[in-house]
Design goal:
By secondary structure, this protein is mainly α. It contains eleven helices and two strands.
Length: 314
C-alpha cells in the first residue's frame, strides 16, 4: 500500500511538472515573438521583459524536478540507483533555482517600487538593469546556499533516488528556510512598506494620470504579495515534516513524495498567476486565442464562397 501511494504521488507531480514546462514554453514563445516582431510600447516591453526573468527560472527548476521524478519512477519500477558524482550538485542547483524563484518575484516588486516611488530614475526601469540584477542574485543564491555543501547536508535519498536535504538534518533545513523564505519575504515586506508610506504622503492635487498609474502598480504589487502568501502557505508542509523528524528522529517515509505535488502546484500556479496579473502578457495570450478562433471561421467562409461560385458557374 505504501509503495502504491508513493508511486501515485510521484506520477501526479511528474504530470503537473510536464504541464508546467509546456505552459511556460508556450508563454515564452509568444512573449519573445511580440518583443522581437511587434512594435510594443517601451513601457509594455519592459514589463514583459521583467516577467521573462521569472519564467526561465521556473522552467529550469521544473526540468530538474522532472528528472527527479523520472529517477524516482525508474527506481520504484526497476530498483535503479542514481547515486553518481553529479547527484549532489544537481540537488544543490535545484535549491538555487528555487531561491531564484522567490528573488524573481522580488524583482517584480522592485520594478513596481521604482515606477511608483523612483519614477524619475529611468535606468531603474530598464530591462538590462533587471537582467544584471538577476545575475547578481544568482551569484548571491549560490553563496548563501553554499553552506549546504560544506555541511554535506545534501545526501542521496535511497527511497526517492535523488539527492536532497533530509528533514533530520536540522541545520540544513533551517538554513534553507532562512535563505529561500526568510530573506526574500523580509525584502518584500520592506518594499511594500516603502510604497505604502510613499502613497500615504502623496499630495492631494497629484495629476489624475499619475495617480491612476500608481494605483495600477500598487494593485499589481498587492497581487504579487497574495501570490507569495500562497507560496508561503504551501511551504507549511515542509515545516510539519521537520517537526515530525525532530520528534521521531527519522524522516517520514512519504515526506518528499507528499511535498513534491505541492511544489509542482506552486510552480504551475505561479506561472498562471503571473500571466493573469500582468495585463500585457494576458492581452497577448487572449489575442492569440482570439485569432485562433477567427481563422477557422474565415476558412469556412472562404470555402463557402468558393462553393457558391462553383454552383453559379454550373
Amino acid at each position: 500500500m505504501m509503495s502504491n501511494v508513493a508511486f501515485v504521488l510521484n506520477i501526479i507531480a511528474l504530470i503537473i511538472d510536464l504541464c508546467t514546462c509546456v505552459i511556460i514554453l508556450f508563454i515564452l514563445c509568444i512573449a519573445i515573438y511580440h518583443i522581437v516582431c511587434k512594435n510594443l510600447k517601451q513601457e509594455d516591453r519592459v514589463v514583459i521583459c521583467v516577467c521573462l526573468t521569472i519564467y526561465p527560472v521556473i522552467f529550469l527548476f521544473t526540468i530538474i524536478a522532472v528528472s527527479f521524478h523520472i529517477q524516482t519512477l525508474l527506481g520504484d519500477l526497476y530498483e535503479k540507483t542514481f547515486n553518481s558524482a553529479s547527484c549532489t550538485p544537481i540537488g544543490y542547483i535545484s535549491y538555487v533555482f528555487l531561491n531564484m524563484f522567490y528573488w524573481a518575484f522580488i524583482n517584480q516588486a522592485l520594478f513596481r517600487l521604482c515606477r511608483i516611488v523612483y519614477s524619475r530614475y529611468q535606468y531603474l526601469q530598464s530591462f538590462w538593469f533587471y537582467i544584471c540584477l538577476s545575475l547578481i542574485e544568482l551569484v548571491f543564491s549560490f553563496i548563501v546556499l553554499s553552506p549546504l555543501l560544506f555541511w554535506h547536508a545534501i545526501v542521496y535519498l535511497t527511497d526517492d533516488f535523488y539527492c536532497y536535504v533530509k528533514f533530520t538534518h536540522t541545520r540544513g533545513i533551517l538554513w534553507l528556510a532562512f535563505g529561500i523564505y526568510g530573506i526574500p519575504l523580509s525584502i518584500l515586506s520592506l518594499i511594500y512598506l516603502r510604497i505604502a508610506i510613499f502613497l500615504r504622503r502623496q499630495p492631494g492635487n497629484l495629476a489624475t494620470a499619475v495617480r491612476q498609474r500608481q494605483q495600477r502598480d500598487l494593485a499589481v504589487f498587492q497581487r504579487i504579495l497574495v501570490t507569495i502568501g500562497i507560496l508561503v502557505i504551501l511551504g507549511i508542509a515542509p515545516i510539519i515534516f521537520l517537526i515530525m523528524a525532530q520528534i521521531t528522529g527519522e524522516d517520514y517515509f512519504l515526506a518528499f513524495r507528499l511535498i513534491w505535488p505541492f511544489i509542482s502546484l506552486t510552480m504551475i500556479g505561479s506561472s498562471l498567476a503571473l500571466l493573469l496579473f500582468t495585463p500585457q502578457l494576458k492581452h497577448m495570450i487572449l489575442k492569440i486565442a482570439y485569432q485562433t478562433q477567427i481563422v477557422p471561421f474565415d476558412s469556412a467562409a472562404g470555402n463557402s464562397i468558393e462553393q457558391q461560385r462553383a454552383t453559379t458557374r454550373v
